[in-house]
Structures
1.
Amino acid sequence: MFLFFKIFQEGILLAIQELWSNKLRTVLSLMGISIGIFCVISVWAITESFQAGLKQSFNKIGSNVLHVSKGSWDFQKMSTSWWKYMKRPNPNFSDYEHLQKNMKLADLINIRAVKMGQKLQYKGVEIDNTFIVGTNYDFAEMFDLEVDIGRYFTREEIQMGKNGILLGYEVAETLFPSASFALGKEVKHDGRKLKIIGILKKEGESILGNGFDGATIVPYNYFRKYYNINNPKLEQIISVAGRDDVNLDDVREEIRGGLRASRHLKPKEEDNFEINHLSLLTGMIDSLFAVVSIAGFLIGSFAILVGGFGIANIMFVSVKERTRFIGIKKSLGAKRIYILLEFLTESIILTSLGGAIGLAAVYLLLTLGNHFIESFNLFLSSSNIFWGIVISVIIGIVAGFIPAFQASELDPVEAMRS
């Protein structure tokens, strides 16, 4: 063991000596490794960061929640059968009531209708790019909606369709000098007055947008008083959160049976609705990012290959320059394995240094990127650092093995004569 560490220490010293004595040659050779590692790890890190940010945004939809709509979240199915899905009826209040009355495995059931591009006014101030959500009492609990100022609707207000409204943080900041000033005031929407009972907590930017910061929320029964909820252009969704002690597939089947009964579908008729889950989106994202990661690796591999040839060239030259010393060592009893390990260690040190430079460049890139990107956080994970080091070591072994093997096979007498 002591001898091994001695060889390792000597390899490090010789590698440093090689770097110092042949600066230009070493820098040019290490650039290939550094650029290769930078390309591969930067693609992996950016992909992983984007994927994490996207999944974090998706988690707001609810990981244990099933969503009923007329369209599918499977983009491939939608692209091939778009017209079929568009002809379907939207989930409606009758569907919601049937599920609420008959479902045994559901913990929460929510219906919501969304109308985009709405205009709100308060005195002389106006905002015209908000969206209004008409929903029920379970909405807040199902999607972890947090009210920063004021309160959420009571069950009675939801049931009676009171003219109350919750404002997203951005909407409140636009209409009023401060969010706290908005509480209790009345805003106008389509000529009707709505009393502000609460301001939602600021969510900030995410990959999917700014969440409910630009939203307004009213009771569903108020919403359907003034809008045609049977309009196919109006987006309506029913969401069902299953109980913790039941399988989500069982909840799906119960929803399917309930909707088929509500819509009086015959046994052989196809479902005219879709039951979507978060896994549909995350599965497609994982597949897409896997392809991106492979592409990044292939692109970086070319630079790594060039760098590997550069390291091999350095090692061949190093063996040539130290042939006499190798002969002396072998004549004094150094075994072939020790000579092999000495040069392999030197090669690994060189490629590891190149890899470290590449990883440092990736870290700087991600740090700089975080100053310009607000929707998600760029980070260099421990797994990416690990793979950067592993790839560097593997390249060092591959690039240095043949020169090291040749050095270990030298005849001592011939080597000392060179």
2.
Amino acid sequence: MKYLFLATDENKMQLYHLLLNAINFHDKGHEVATILECASPKLLIGIADGTIKLPVFDKAMELGIIDHACKACSAAFSATEAAQKLGVALRGELSGHSDLLKFADAGFSILTF
């Protein structure tokens, strides 16, 4: 099955649990994508500068299951540079924001925390 994990809040424990589950789904053979939308891209700043320790983020990046961060939201929270430093793609096909319809049309179930 296909699952899109959608992070929306600036809460490192929420992102931790979302990524932990995304990795588990991936490890169990599911197709997984993760998007950082709304306030969650702000966490990239702390991850990039080392003030937020989140090893599951590194594991998710290694597995290639972080699809992107919202371009507009990353800019709004001054997280664009951090996303680029971490290698997180920025996308904004929907007026600068993430287009979830393309994932739904591709058969992904959308999960959010």
